[in-house]
Amino acid sequence: MAVSVEFHFDFGSPNAYLSHLVIPAIEARTGVSFEYIPVLLGGIFKATGNASPAVTLQGIKNKGEYGNIEIRRFLTRHAIDNFEFNPHFPVNTLQLMRGAVYAKMVGFLDRYVDEVYRHMWAEPKKMDDNEVIELAFAESDLPVEELMAAMQDTEVKQALIANTERSVEIGSFGSPTFFVNGEIFFGKDKLRDVEEEIVALLIH
Amino acid sequence: MAVSVEFHFDFGSPNAYLSHLVIPAIEARTGVSFEYIPVLLGGIFKATGNASPAVTLQGIKNKGEYGNIEIRRFLTRHAIDNFEFNPHFPVNTLQLMRGAVYAKMVGFLDRYVDEVYRHMWAEPKKMDDNEVIELAFAESDLPVEELMAAMQDTEVKQALIANTERSVEIGSFGSPTFFVNGEIFFGKDKLRDVEEEIVALLIH
To answer: Is the pLDDT confidence value at B135 over 80?
Structure first.
């Protein structure tokens, strides 16, 4: 059976970054590639009435601490040493996500994603400041002017909105979200279930 | 290494019930028994500023639907056919949890838990109505008068409060919550991690 796996991602979510680091191993074990779909998490929150954990956890005892425990467990389990919480969090990722839409259209999404994630969550920078973005892109040998221009392109803007609307239509409410042949899985802790679902579909 | 596993439970939580159904298989595979600790989920919510998903999910698109998808997956994975959502939800479980504290003191907690969970989530009844509770206890051949009296006992009341306070002190914010040698795990979807942690501790 053909298996389609979508990863709906926004650079602003640390848990999406951590998922991104683990996806290559799942792709290698299953032989199935994840399609990266750029979405705007702020748009998903607005459309669903949901909010960022940074907002919903405010004033709640123990729950945020537990989230940090689960992050540490994930780092240990997957031997991740390239994660540093972005001190500028929350970072407005509108420009970066438009850049992702463009990079996908033109054909360098993989490299763009790796590099931007590094600038967000491994060597974190204030990636909603155009000067910082341009310097980071240049350091990564990405086409700076082309990307900065694309971020103002109507087609690019519309494509990001369309991705985000479709994501909500098929069930998204937060990040990271995965779809395996249309079946939704939410959260980095569900990557094991995602892999099992892929394997089950491949067998049948 | 000695392994202590605590299951902090309230009869009001469907996900705690579903965990309860799966725990015996984990106990059989690992040889380690779960200690059931009666807590008052409402008290945990009050102490932490958290709230029931029934409250926090209100008006949020897709998130509640996803919770239901995960419940269906859990039912399928564990071949559970004795779950029916309680039509009287949310049920105030104060009396039932006091009964659990007493049953534990006196030594019939296992049977009490099995029976009360059945009356809550397999053959659901309005278990915050004293007449309904008494009929259910009688049907289950539990000591009705003894339990109804115990629910008004100061020592029992205080013990439930103490359990709840300790639960929050060591990290609880919702239900179901597990502690493996003091390490917290939240949610029925973490039972696999709970089992792996038990096995890891047994090996070391």
So the answer is: yes
Contact B184 A49 (CB under 8 A): no
Residue count of chain B, please give it.
204
Question: What was the pLDDT predicted at A182?
Answer: 97
Q: Give the best residue of B45, B57, B62 to mutate against chain A (max A CB count within 10 A).
A: B62
The length of chain A is 204
Q: Is the dihedral of CA B157, B94, B123, B149 positive or negative?
A: positive
- Answer yes or no: do B66 and A168 touch at CB < 8 A: no
Mean pLDDT score across all residues of chain B: 97
Find out whether B37 and B6 touch, Cβ atoms under 8 Å. Answer: yes
- Determine, for residues B174 and A63 on separate chains, whether the beta-carbon distance falls below 8 Å: yes
pTM: 0.95
Per-residue pLDDT at B57: 87
Average pLDDT value for residue range A102-131: 98
Q: Which among B49, B65, B189 has the least Cβ separation from residue A59?
A: B49
User: Could you say which architecture CATH assigns to the domain B5-203?
Assistant: 3-Layer(aba) Sandwich (3.40)
Domains of chain B, residue spans: 5-203
Predicted-complex ipTM score: 0.94
- Asked if residues B184 and B172 have their Cβ atoms less than 8 Å apart, the reply is yes
SS3 content of chain A, % helix, strand, coil (to 5): 60, 10, 35
Contacts of B69 in chain A (CB under 8 A): 184
Q: Do B50 and A69 touch (CB under 8 A)?
A: no
